[in-house]
Amino acid sequence: MNLMQDAPNVVSEDGLRALLAEGHSADVVCRVTPTRTSAQWSGVWTVHCVSPDGETRRLLVTSRNNMVAREFKTINGLVSFLAGVGLTMVSIPMLEGKVASHKLDAS
Fold first, then answer.
1. How far apart are CA 62 and CA 12, in angstroms?
2. Is the pLDDT of residue 41 over 50?
3. Which residues contact 75 (CB under 8 A, 6 or more apart)?
4. Strands 99-102 and 40-50
């Protein structure tokens, strides 16, 4: 069973790291406009891996076995994840439907 053929439109965290290193971008999509509670912003964001030519988009999933979209409910969680995959600058869309694109720094 070749998971890339069976589910070409999703990517795991490890797959995202590998694709970012190959020049893909990580798009952060705001699904629910965040609200502020004390010092914390809460909303819903998803991450999509986009090929350099923009032709292929893959949704980040919790694992390739269950194919559930990985959703980030807080800005802290989202930033921690993006830093963990190697991004050094992060832009976060704050309105539903807005997108922010990220690439690894050129080495």
1. 7
2. yes
3. 34, 40, 41, 43, 92
4. unpaired
Phi, psi at residue 78, to the nearest 5°?
-65, -45
DSSP 70: P
Residues whose CB is less than 8 angstroms from the CB of residue 90 and which lie 6 or more positions away in sequence, other chains included: 28, 78, 79, 82, 83, 100, 102
CA atoms of 4 and 1, how far apart (whole Å): 9
Select from 43, 57, 52 the least CA-distant residue to 11.
57
Angle at 97 between CA 93 and CA 102, to 5 degrees: 45
Across the chain, the runs of DSSP E, i.e. the strands, are: 10-11, 25-37, 40-50, 57-60, 72-74, 99-102
Is 0.85 topped by the overall pTM?
yes
Q: Which two tokens stand for residue 28?
A: 């952060």
CA atoms within 13 A on the CB side of 82: 30
pLDDT digits (tens, 9 = 90+) for 15-39: 999 999 999 999 999 999 999 999 8
